[in-house]
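User: I'm curious what two different proteins look like when written out as structure tokens. Can you demonstrate?

Assistant: Sure. I'll show them one after the other, since each token string lines up with its own sequence. Here's the first protein:
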Amino acid sequence: ATCGHGCKYGECMGPNKCKCFPGFTGKTCNQDLNECGLKPRPCEHRCMNTHGSYKCYCLNGYMLMPDGTCASSRTCAMVNCQYGCEEVKGQVQCLCPSGGLQLGPNGRTCIDIDECSTGKAVCSYNRRCVNTFGSFYCKCQLGYELKYTSGRYNCVDVNECVTNTHRCNLHAECLNTPGSFQCKCKQGYRGSGFDCA
């Protein structure tokens, strides 16, 4: 089976037919499926969509059970957690709905972990990390764009000289470089390449 357009988060099952991995949708499986918008809703109280998945959490005064339901809890109500709580060995602990969040100093509210600055996020070559609330994603470095080549998605150098996105002087030549470009004044002209006289 060949899929000319590729299957970003899925498998090619037939001529240009993708079978998406759970949590993804679209013709090329390149879109995140918002499970929180599905009917019936996957969570009893509150739902947080994540890349390729989702997390359930409960209203204050309720405890998240292993099956994703929310059980009323007097102890939870007393602790006053932002995203519900769980009981571990008789101790009540507040929960955060994502691994990219951590309990704040007060032990009740959740604060974002910047995976990009802590080094927890690992982005492949030519990609840079972008932090989001509770998570992160990898984006192509400046001067590169996401393209489907030889069976997978890669960050490919943008040729600014061909796309005409360079700022070279009218009397200069544009030279493409990985992730960028250079300008060189033509013969008989002098300058930086951006200014030629």
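Here's a second, unrelated protein for contrast:
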Amino acid sequence: YFTFQWSFLAVGQDERTDPYRSKLWKEAYGNVLELGPGFSSSLKHLHHKTTKDSSYNVDPDVIHSYTALEPNPFMYGGLQENAEKNGFRVEYDHVSYPECTISGTEDPHKELVPFKIVRGTLDDSDNIPQAILDGAPYDTVLTSFALCTAANPEESIRNIMRLLKPGGSYIFVEHIRHPTPGDPLVVEDNGVDGQFWGKMQDWVNPIWNIFGHGCHITRKTGENIANMDGWKSVDHKMVRVNDALIAYFLPMSFGKAIKA
């Protein structure tokens, strides 16, 4: 059942998202935290370099460590596979996931960038996994379609800010409700009637939420990030996509916020 849900939501998602994520993810650096990565196909967009053995691995001069905070163990096999393909050394946090029976990277090369998989969310400030707190502060926090499924998205944003170091970057691509027609932050309209499809989102959202594993398509995530106190700057834009029927329900907000 979950496989069906994930497959439904993922139809064409990478193709629609990669033009924006490929540029933004290049700006990730240092000690990185990704919230709700799923299989994290976006790892390919981080800074890479060719190593001595001709492998094309994540660049250790840019990415020093990577922590993936994912609540659903269903994702861990694919997440580990993608991490290893990108030259990370994978380990699991057995405190947040004590029932873990998955081994990390079989050949733990010391020179590879560490990649820790932690089970949990940032929905509740009192229940942030200790491994996440121990790894803070982070230079970069990333989210791709994580806040649309968060039980408490405002609390998650506050905790993202809390975990960032001053001057650190929060980089995001998130599903949103269609913005008002004529909104200057919409950089690509693609002929989509935002007023009509916004109403369609309102109507479909309760059903979508059930079949989409808790995904909400009516949140104003970019605006909520921008309106939160504590940022030095927020640069975000919105796009409407019309390449497939499902895309009409999934406009996106993407951008970067810098902590004051």
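A detail about the second structure: The longest strand covers residues 164-175.
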